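Dear support,

We are seeing what looks like truncated structure output for some complexes. This example has two components. We would appreciate it if you could run it in full and send us the complete token output so we can diff it against ours.
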Amino acid sequence: MKPRRKGQGIDLEKIKKMKANGTKGLHLDEALIFERSCEGRIGVAPSRFDVPACDAEKSIPRKYLRDDMGGFPEVAEIDVVRHYTRLSQWNFGVDSGLYPLGSCTMKYNPKINEEIAALPGFSRLHPYQGEELSQGALELMFQLEEYLCEITGMDAVTLQPSAGAQGELCGLLMMAAFFKDRGKPRTKIIIPDTAHGTNPASSHLAGFKVVPVKSEGRGALTANAVKDVMDADTAGVMLTNPNTLGLFEADIKEIADVVHKKGGFLYCDGANMNALMGIVRLGDLGVDVVQLNLHKTFSTPHGGGGPGSGPVAVRKTLEPYLPVPRVRKRGKKYSFDFKRPRSIGRLKAFYGNFAIMVRAYSYIRRMGPEGLKRAAEAAILNANYIKERLKGTFDLPFDRPCMHECVFSDKVQQPNGVSTMDIAKRLIDYGYHPPTVYFPLVVPGAIMIEPTETETLETLDRFIEAMKNIADEARNAPELLKNAPANTRVGRVDETKAAREPVLRWKAKPPL
Amino acid sequence: MEFPKDLKYTKEHEWLKVEGNTATVGITDYAQDSLGDVVYVELPSEGGSVTKNEPFGVVESVKAVSDLYSPVSGSVAEVNDAIIDSPEAINEDPYGDAWMIKVEMSNPKEVEDLMSSDEYQKYVEEEK
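Here is the complete output from our reference environment:
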């Protein structure tokens, strides 16, 4: 007998082919912009001052003034253009390949959104130009609010929050204001263990104490678990549906009943709305507040781009508490309404991330009600396709139909000393952005895959093939995974060292 | 994986060593192993109070952030500041150098509902 040679059993030809398909290419080096600096070189020459110079020391306290620019790069315009173009070429985005980052809905952002947002009437708007000259923009905001009401089944929407987490905070502050108004402030919020990390953080920021509840064996929250902790001192429950395991919270109506009986609100984190739009309206399920992530569900750029946008939809009871200003329509004229005494106030300068609203509006209009529904259905179908085809190759802790994402673990690969991190890094070698890893926390070594509706069957099949190849490698040549990524410009970085000894500021090398 | 016999254990994977009325608290070998490389620790200050089953600190690894739960109630008599500067001790020596706090117990009876080494070992096997 002969010990099995490492690497045996793998179809090396297949792997070579896949690499050729993925990341082999020209990797040009690029120095830091600071290192390109040359004393006295100028990129843009500002025009001569046409206002009198002022003495900085007279208008800004001394302690906030800097005497020198400390290594500020002095470069020509072309240096800057080449530098950032090169960095963008190193980057990986949804425009360059599959980006199945679970819980993030990295769907393709149709270019028509960009075209609409670039129309001069939108792109050259100034927030100070006044209501009279902003009627088109106000009309768009008003209509977008109406569409989002229809999609969620709620009564009113604010577009102001600048991202999902700020939307959560907005919703929670409104709930707190509601109870305070009635002279009976409530102090607690119930959050299941499958929640997004932002949920407890937002609750804490809004002044609530978090009461955690465990999801039961099938990965969902039960009405009974909520009943045990829900009381007259609890403002409500914060639920994500579908939850972070990609599973539908089937008890949601019963949970809403339990919460409402005690006078509380059901908050739904709408980050995973991509699985529901056009199929079910959260309002019909008993939800009272929900934030939407336009940058996920409604195809606006995010993940290093952005900015985000986190509108919040509420029922009538919470409407008086929405942030100011609200967009109002009188006859054919639109205006801002600031006179809202019970409002929680302003959350963001001006009116929110307007250009993002334009993109979301464009997406909704282009898709139409049927299109949105089909997008949700395809998102669910794609996730289930991956789940079924990779089941058995990778451990699937919750084997039941999923919604828009599915969660595997590294349990099958662990005996070979291969972890989720190694699998994720190896996927980079195959030309894919890794999925979300080690989240949700209820699954140790989680690998969370969200393909979204925008990927074709061929792309999904190639990804599945890559995952199966990686599983083969984990068995027969685990060092390929341990040393991954090997095809990238930079190999595996030491994340532990980066966290323990972070280098936060560039320092010039001493001259030779 | 090691679970010393002279320690008591919680379901949240903290260990407790009782000496008279003082209890030393840390996290178990299993906890540090599942967390991965620990990069940050937050501990209470001396003289503060801790409550059984309530969070007393935070431990952060490259994978996740977790709350630390106190196995007993009482006042914080001593804090191991050394691990704040070198959190890697938690991975290297969870039962020794990386003890976290010493608690002057207000109700030593609380120790009774904690798990023994054997019970904890069984519990961990089931968790896997």
